[in-house]
Each structure stands twice: as C-alpha cells, then as structure tokens.
Amino acid sequence: MFATDTDTSQPTAIELAERAEYARIAVVEKVAPSVVCIFDEAERGGGSGVIISPDGYGLTNFHVVEAMMETRSGFGGMSDGQLYPLQVLGIDPGGDVAMFKLSGRDPFPFSKLGDSDLVRVGDTAIAMGNPFLLSDDYTPTVTSGIVSGIHRYQYGSGDVLLYSDCIQVDTAINPGNSGGPLFNLAGEVIGINGRISVSMRGRVNVGMGYAITSNQIKPFIPGLRAGLLVEHGTIQATVRDRDAGVVFVELYEDGPAWNVGVRPGDELLRFANQPIESANHFASVLGTLPGGWPVTLSYRDATGKVHHRITRTEGVKLKTRKPYEPDGETVARGIERVLQRFRRTLGEKADETTMMSWRESQVPDELDAAAVEYDVVVPGNGGMSWTPTKSDSGNIVVQKTEGELKATIDDAPLSAAMDLTYRARTFAQRLVETDPESLAGLFDHCGADALLDIDSNGISHSNLLECITARLDDHTTIRLGFDSAHGNMRRITATDEPTRESVDITLADATGWPVDLVVESMHGKTSIRIVDGDDHEDIANKNAADWMTQNALDRTKTLAASVFDDVALRVVKLTGARVGQSEGYGCGILISTNGLALTVDSGLLNSPNVRAHLYDGSPRQVELVHADRNLQLALIQLKVGEFAAVSEGKDDKYTCFDLSQTPDLTIGQPVFAGGNPFKVADKGEHISLSRGVYCGTTKLDATRGTQDFPYRGDVLVIDAITSAPGFAGGALVDSAGQLLGLVGRGVESRFTYTQLNYAIPSSVLSEFVANASSPDSNKSTKSATKGRDVYHGIKFFELGYRSNPVYVERVRRGSPAASAGIRKDDLVIGANGRPIAKLSVLERLIDECEPGDVLELTVLRGEKVKKIRIELEEAK
Amino acid sequence: MIERTLRRVIGATCACLLLCSFGLVARASESNANLASGAEAIVDKAISKASPFIVRIETVGGVQPLDQLLASDDDRNPNQFRDNPGSNFMVADGPTTGIIYSADGLILTSSFNFVRNPSIVTVALADGRQMTADIVARDRVRKLTLLKIDATDLPTPEWVPNEQIRPGQTAIAMGMGFGGSKPMASVGIVSAVNRMMGNAIQTDAKLSPANYGGPLLDSFGYVLGICVPMAQRPGELAGIEFYDAGVGFAVPGKRIHEIVADLKEGKSFHRGWMGMTVDPKVEKGVAIKSSADPSPIRDAGALPGDWIVRINDQPIKHFGQLVKALYMVPAGERVNVRLLRGAEHIDVELTLAKSEELGPLPKEEEPFDPTKPVTEEETEEP
Q: Would you say B258 and B241 are in contact if contact means Cβ atoms under 8 Å apart?
C-alpha cells in the first residue's frame, strides 16, 4: 500500500493541517462509541455520560441523575442505536458527579480517564454529549474548541454542585451536554462537562463551558463505584485574601487545621503539595479532596515561624433532601468488584510466591481517628483498621478490629493486599511526618533500584509519598508508588534480576482503571510497560496511531499555548462603575510598557475608582486619558510609578501590543481572543482565551440596547463568541500573537438582529492613539461636528411611521439625481453596496455623506436591476 | 467527484505513511506557525472554490412573522390549528445567502430568508450581476426555498456524498448576512451526521441569519449541506434560538436533491397536521381529546379517548415524543399510527393535512374516557 509512495520530503503546511483533520476524525471515531445519552425512565429529560470501563461503569453529573434518585434507574443510549438499562450507583452531590452502570452489552466501548493536571490553556478540547436531546439515534454531538482557562472556581449552591478547579472551555456546551465527557486530542477524558455561563439570550452556549477535572473525580471513583454517597473534605477553617497573603480567619477547635497548630491570623503557604495563591485557589484545591484524605499543610504563625504539617481532611456531611441510603446490593457488588481485581492481581500470585516482604517492620498498630470513620475501605481511598496474622498457608489473614464492619471479607490474599495498601500508606505517611522536607528518605527506604516512570509527565518526586513493595518471585521485586494527592499509582520500581524472560501481572491503578503491566527482563535490562487492559493486540499500531494524533495535534496545542502566553501578559482586567446595564468589569490591552492601555469607552470608566489588575494580580489605579464616543474607544493610563516598579526584575514580562503592525488578514484564518467574560478571572487569575476564525470585514451598523451604536466604521467579524459581558476591551490576535484588534462592546447587528462578535481593527486603534496624544485633544471628544448637508433631489415615498420600501416619488428637475437618471417609481434596493430595505437606513447613510461624494444607488425598474451613480451637491 | 476521491486517497496515504515514518516527521519539528498557515490555506482554498456559486439575496417589503400571527387571528382558519412561527425572534431585512443549484438559474436558499413574505427578491451573483428572482417553491418543514433567476451557464457546486460525511471533519459555513460583497466564513466541525429524522447534519460552526441559506463546506470546498435553522419542533423560526451557539444544522446533499426534485415542480411543503387536541394533564401517554372535522385522525377512524402508542414504529410515551415523531413530516406524507382503544391495538395509516384543510373542532364535548376527568386546558397537537 505504501510502496509506491516514496516521497520522504517534509510535509507542507497544508498536509500538516490535513493530517490534523484526519487525526481529529480518527479520535472522534475512536471515542464517540463510549458516550452515553442519558434519559430518565419516562424519557422526558436527560443528559449525557461516558463509559469508563468495559463492564459498563460510567460517569455523569449528579444533577443529571438527581431526578432519577427515586428509582435509581433510567436509560443510556449509545451510538450503536441501542437503549440500555441504566442504574445509578454512587453520587457526589458536592462535586456534581455521579456514577452509573449500564447493562446489556459485553464489553461496552469505553474511554480512558486522562491526567487533567497536564491540561493547559489553548489545548484543544472536544466535548461530546446530547445537547438539547437532539440525538434520535443516540450518536453524540461532537463539538470542538480550546481550553480557555484552568483552575477556575464556580460557586455552588451551599455545599452542593460546587465546581472547584474546573476546566473552562470555549467548546460549545449546551443544556443536555451535562455529564458528558470532555476529551483531549488523545481521546482521553479530561473532564465531565457540567456547567455553562449564560447571558441575556437564555440557556445557550456563549463560549463559556466548565468541566469537572478527571483528576478530582479519580479519588472518589472507588466510593462511587460502590454506590456510596461520597463526601468532600474540609479542614474546618476559612481563609481570606489579605495584602500579606492568604490568611486563616476562622477555625473550628478540634478541626484538622486546628489540631496541627493553626490559629486565626496564621498565613497559609502550601496546601496539598501546592503553593496557595489566593483564597479562591485554596477553595479550588480543597474542593477536589475527599473526606479523610491525607494532606500536607504549611503555614506561617504569628512569630513568623513556618510549620509543615500533615493532617487529614474531615468529610463534609451534606444535607440531602432525603437521607441517602446506599443500595446494599450495589455496595456488595462494588466491594466484590474490588475483591476480584485484587484476586486477579496480587492474590493469585500469592500462592506461588512469597507475596510480600517488608523492609520496614515498624508498622503502627494504632490508627488515627479519622481513618476508622470509613464504612467501606476501597484501595486508593484512605485507610482502615486491620490486624494482620499469618495463616497456615503463609498468607496474611486480616480481621477488622475497630468500628462496625459493613462487609465481610474472607478472602485471605485479597485482605492481605488491602492491608498492605493501608500499611504502606501509613508507613509512608509516618515517614513524611518525621521529615516533611526531605522526601529523599523515602527513596532510601525503597532502595536504590532502577526507577521507571509509568507516567513521566509532570510527576515529580514530591508527589510520591507512599509505596508498596511486592516480591513476585525469588528474583523479581516490584515496588509501587502512589501519589498521595490523588492516590494514583505513579511509579514502579523493579529490581534487575534477569532470570525470567517476562512477567505479566495486571494491576489496577487507584482510579479503578484496569491496566496490564508487562514486565520484561532481557539481557540484564528490565523494562516495564503499561498498556490498556484487554488490548494486547496491535499495541504497536495503536501507539503509532496515538503518536500520529499527538504529534500532528501537539503543534496546535503549543501554538495556542504560546499565543496565550503573550496575550495573558498584555490584557488587563478592569473593574469600575456599574452604570445601568453595562458591566462593572471589562478588559484593556497594554500598548506601552509605561502603562498606557486601550479599552472601550464604557460606563465602567465613569468612576473615580477604576482599577486594573495585571496578569500577576497586582492592582493599578486607572486614569482616563482620552475617550472618543464615536469610536467607542478610550485610552487609559495605569499609574506609571507603580507600574514601572512592578515591571522591574520580572525579566521584561511587561510586554505590550505593537500598534504599528497591521498584519494581513485572510478570511478563515485562525484568530484568538483574550478577555475576561463573566469576570471569571479575579485578580491574579488568568484571563480567558477563545479560538475562532476571522470571518471577514464589514462596516458596523448596529444597535446597543435601544440606541444606535455610534461607531460605524470597519470591524473585524470573528466566530469566537466575544459578545459575552466583560469581553469588551480584550485583545484579538492572530496565531503569531500579533494584535489584530480590540474586542468591541456588545451590539446587535442591524443586518441580522443577532449579537455580533467583532473587534475594532488595529489601524483604527493606532489612529485613535495618535489623535489622543496630539496636543489639541482634550479629555473627551464629543461627536465629530457634522459637515455640510448634501442635496440629491429625490423625494421618497413616505407613509406614516411604518418602514416602507424606498420608492422614488419625485425627482426634482435638474437635480443631481435627475441628471444621473433616477426616475419616478424606481425602487431603491441598495446604496453604496449595502442593501436598503427601508427609508431610515438610506437616510442615515446619506446623512454621513459630504458634498462631492458619490452615492451609488441600486434600483429596481420593472424587472431590471440598475446601478446609478449620483454626485451629491451641497444643500442650499 | 473523481478529484475529490483522489484527494481523499492521497490524504489517507499521507496519514498511513506517517505511521511508518516517525523519524521523518519527528525531525520536521518546524514552527507551529506552519500548521496555522496550513489551516488558513485550506480554508482559503475552500472559500475560493465555493465563492463563485454563493449568491447574495436581498428582499424588499414584508413584515415580521410575529405580526402575521397577531393580525390574522381566527378569520384565516376556522380551526385553532395555526402555523406558529415557533419563536418571537425579530427577523431582520438584511442581505441573506443562497447558492446556485443549477447552471440554468435555480438558486437554493433557506426559507428562513423569506419568513417576512417580501414582495421583491433580488439575487446578486459573485460576478457582480444583480437580478430579480422568482420564488419557485418553499419547503417550510426542511426550511428550504428554491428561487429562479434568468441566467444561464452559471457555476455550480459539487456535493459531498452523504456516506462520506464524518463527525469531526472540518465544516466551513459561508454567508453574506453581515453585509459586504464577499461572503464571510466561520469554521467548525461536523458534530453529527444524522439529525432531525435524517434531514440534517449538525455542526458547531457558528450558524445564524448571517449564513442561513448558505453552504456548509468541507475543507476542499465541496458542499456538505445548506445551513438552516432547525429544532425538534415545528415552526419556520424554530431553531433560531440556537444561533451562534455551536448547535447548527445543514440539510445534506442527498436530502436536498430529493426535496429540490419536488420544489422544481412547484410543489411547496407545509407543516403536517393530524388535527387533534390532547389532554395535557395526562402525563403517561397521549390520549386524543377531540379532533377537527374533517381531519386526518378523525377520517382514519380514531375516537376521542383513544391512546396513541406508536407513530411510524416510534413508541409514543408522552406528548413530547409525539411532537418529535411528526415535526419533520410535511403535509401530504403518510404516517402509520397505532391506537390503543380499551385493550385493543388498532393500526391506521393517515396522510397529514395542511392547517387550511382541517375543519373546526366540534363545539360540544364529545364522549371522552370516563375514567379521566376532563380538564379545561388543551394542548395543540403538532
């Protein structure tokens, strides 16, 4: 098949783009079968979901299944055209997640959960689901866009439906998409779409969708699978942004934070292995953690001393409408599933090998109080109290010693494995508690064996807190590393004793995802590969396909990411006065390194206290330099002194847009818009980025509210949605990051009566700036003085106030119109290339003309269309 | 078409070749701008290919469809089955878009562009000529309209065969609606290939009155379909609420050709009615409350109190499903209806009627299922 094609030259740009399209189609085809259209039993309402394992387990939003909680059943339609019975399993009302199980097919097509920590602004994000329940044949709707923001925080109602640390996308997400997957270009689920921002238009997409990250769902999966009401964690403390930093305000005595010594007024530095930048950020991180989860906490006390502590979150008890009663059968099944997995993995090996060996014998017998509150232990979700004893066969038999046991586990090898998980965790935790700053100690205990990354992307040693050692046989020892933040299996260590050719064992990572682990020892080298479960065949092909997809599309990714880097630094977030309908927030673009910025002329600026927040969150007082009502533009000055001070020592991070460049534009070329719609970004949080294309240029003819919009010059029309409140004043750039224009205020086009997405071109901006800095310009120019009136000599037919077709009623003899050839009863249907359907439009157009201008009228005379040029004279 | 297939094969070969030659492409770690310029070039080529057959349509006269509804009241039709526009959206009179369908002057566009019932329609071609056009026929269900201009030897588009359309592929919507003499483009992907009972493909390209009636192109400039507003309910404006929301529809080539074959003969399509009212208080199932006389449902022998349990093999569990089963079936087309009377299933076939063809509803209440209380509210059947 390839023999004839020997062209080895580099692909052209067009070929690259074509490959990107093919790769996208391939990814869509690969993952679309795993998407579920969810319906309630009556088939009235519903949403979307995604299957994440071949036995039919799937994820959706809690709010999608909330109406089904009575019977816990519904239907799931898949792209094979079939409706399958759906059972609701565990729920997470706090995080708006729920798990369901479909039955009736084996295996179900499924998609893999990706690592959402790797998601960056600008990455392509593909959403699938059933918006407006449009699908008759249960094939999903596929929409594509980019990641507009990460680490977004969206308030819930009370304790429920809170979106912490979510991904914001400009991918079209509409009602009905709820619960559906957000995919990256590798076809991995990076989030569950659950929310959108909506404007006055109503409940439709305006380019602002939010997805719950896959990584924050992972720790809850075992509990959800077991049919439980899972709880989010709290440390029983509130924090607030202060100038000094993030400060504790209120703490409950005996809460997790209090118990490790935190007191009101102390400054929060790090939490769950991350430096905390704002109160919102803390809420985001905390919102992703389950109850009973071990977390690191660093704070500075009143004396200035820094403490590093480990504590464990408490579960937030939700006030549900009805007490939630887990379905006993489901719970039992959930546990059985976990059992099976471990039987399949370590359990079976236990008969033929000495199962485990411990280097550290000091495993604590006592357990902390938080741990025993767990009803059901599932690996990867906290600890439990077990006392191990050795059985005759040499296996470890465990019995629960504290609390009430809800499930009896009599499978010795399995219990041993579960016990091992817990003990390893406790052990690692002890280790870290002893010496939080030095994690090297952990690795000392693990030995100096070869360390192989399963997933080397973004995983650092600091994430790795917990280890399990397993001896597979006399010659091979394997060690598993878990990251304590999410409980994901991150690393495998293997000794290098090459007496066996290969050992295959199946493991499950903490997400419950079955993976096949292939350990191969050859010629003294040990290699370990992780592959998808049940998919040994064509691994090479699959990898190749993935590689192709990744490679072709990684280019787009880095492209948008680099654009974002530029735009994010050069767009400032403005807050100011709220006047009537207009927003109290917006954007501006930096056009000089000494703090000059451009924005739209809006009511926002009518306040003595207008503030700009730079990319790093530092606030600047804003002064209006010059505003032009006709252009709807304003030049503002960010206080110079402070601005310059900040820019020092930041490696020239304060760059600005270059107004002197006017890049060429081609219809259909990719463009990016950066702004702060819906004020989704606060202070130091990054702005939103949207992707679209340049649709074309037109003269603006629009209304804002009930008023004519004064600007009537050229605008760049784009198909990224920028009409959302707060986007105005943002930047429109090309794919090289060059400024193309300033996002204009929300208007309705007179041509379509729809909201227009547009930008004022950079040529108009530079002219405005030049005029603004000329000496005779004052603070604010009012409407430019109207020139002399023009005379054409036509009397048009008028009848009352109704908008009439523009018929010529009379032409004055000797007038410009008469000499040009206009006749009585001609119907004017166009003027200067613009269609004219009513007189008011034509009159407005003529009003803008000066004597000497040519007015080209398109008229209908009988069946013929004629174009007639009239040279306008000065009115007497 | 041959050229297109070739391109496809070459494209596929490129993709396969890539699989076998990692090193080559890995080495080609050239600037990202390359891909962007490639995407730009592809769209540019597609637009150049399509521009000659895209036309600008201008209309003069006409009124808001909302006005029509308010003004006409009951004197137009003695029954209460009225064609509701499906939205309160104010329709502008700006320019709209169409494509040349045949070299001898047939122009295809969306019926959305004529909901104001304009008195004059003109068509401006890409070569600058502008002429008056006649409306040949309208399909108010699939939202298409066929125009005729007096011209010959016009450039015509090439259509993508339905079976080649794949979700995820690039989709470019072209329109004249924001003004200017050149068509504007917005770019998205194909979201789904079988929507609206097989009458539409779906795209996330931003569709609005700016490009309704215009073509949806693939990345080679071939036509995937004609952009129209649509939603799963009747009404000529239904679907306008989705404008620019990433939920857009286009009638694909295969359907277009079938429909145009009828439109060409002057046959217009209207909303189809069964001519009955149902009790909205009945949540489980759809029970006939009364029917117009004459009406297709009455003529088929259905009685008040009968339950409608199936339409064209679609189970009907509630009123919403009844609407979904019929909104895409124009008057004159046959539907199979399964009625449940007592414990008996009765299968009937009926032909949907135009609203004007329906008689009035009976003045007096007819016998109804005595086990159900009769309620005051009534819901119109679609």
A: no
Its CATH class, for the domain covering A790-874, is mainly beta
* Distances B155 to A91, B158, B182 between C-alpha atoms, Å: 59, 10, 16
B21/A44 Cβ within 8 A: no
Q: Is A640 on the interface with B (CB under 8 A)?
A: no
Q: Per residue in B162-220, pLDDT tens?
A: 999 999 999 999 999 988 788 999 999 999 999 999 999 999 999 999 999 999 999 99
Contact B13 A829 (CB under 8 A): no
A792 given a catalytic annotation: no
- Range of lowest pLDDT (A19-23, A479-483, A505-509): A505-509
CATH superfamily, region A233-315 = PDZ domain (2.30.42.10)
Q: Right CATH number for B276-380 from 2.40.50.140, 3.30.565.10, 2.30.42.10, 3.30.460.40?
A: 2.30.42.10
Please report the number of interchain residue pairs, chain A to chain B, with beta-carbon separation below 8 angstroms: 311
**CB–CB of A668 and B61 under 8 A?**
no
Q: How close A123 comes to chain B (CA, Å)?
A: 14
Which of A771, A760, A765, A876 minimizes the C-alpha distance to A816? A876
**Do A868 and A816 contact (CB within 8 A), yes or no?**
no
Partner residue facing B11 (CB), from A22, A131, A701? A22
> Quick check: is A63 catalytic?
yes
Contacts of B232 in chain A (CB under 8 A): 132-134
Q: Which tokens hold the place of B115?
A: 């909901």
Distance from CA of A67 to the nearest CA of B (A): 16
What's the pLDDT score for residue A408?
30
Q: Cα–Cα distance between A486 and B34 in angstroms, integer? A: 38
Give per-residue pLDDT as tens, B275-297.
999 877 777 889 998 999 899 99
Residues of chain A with CATH 2.30.42.10: 233-315, 790-874
Chain A, residues 201-220, CB within 8 A of chain B, namely 202, 204-206
A365 is catalytic: no
Half-sphere exposure of A323 (CA within 13 A, CB side): 1
CATH 2.40.10.120 domain position(s) in chain A: 30-225, 563-775
- Give per-residue pLDDT as tens, A265-294: 999 998 877 788 888 888 888 888 877 666
Q: Topology of domain A30-225, per CATH?
A: Thrombin, subunit H (2.40.10)
Name which residue leads in pLDDT, B200 or A417: B200
The catalytic position among A178, A199, A278, A284 is A178
Distance (Å) from the alpha carbon of A695 to chain B's nearest alpha carbon: 5
The topology under which CATH files domain A563-775 is Thrombin, subunit H (2.40.10)
The span from the first CA to the last CA of chain B, in angstroms, equals: 40
Q: Is the pLDDT of residue A424 over 80?
A: no
CA atoms within 13 A on the CB side of A23: 29
- Distance from the A395 Cα atom to the nearest Cα atom in chain B, whole angstroms: 48
| CATH classification code of B34-269 | 2.40.10.120
Whole-number pLDDT of residue A460: 32
As to burial, measured by CB atoms within 10 angstroms (0-12 exposed, 13-18 middle, 19+ buried), residue A673 is buried
Q: Which residues in chain A (256-275) have CB-CB distances under 8 A to chain B?
A: none
- The residue ranking higher by pLDDT, A83 or A372, is A83
Q: What are phi and psi of A568, to 5 degrees?
A: -60, -35
DSSP assignments along A81-109, one per residue:
S-EEEEEEEEEETTTTEEEEEE-S-SSPP
Position A487 confidence tier, pLDDT thresholds 50, 70, 90: very low
Residue B220, pLDDT score: 93
Q: Could you state, in order of their start, the residue ranges of all structural domains in chain B?
A: 1-30, 34-269, 276-380
Residue B219: closest CA among B171, B282, B148: B171
Interchain CB contact of A701 with B (< 8 Å): yes
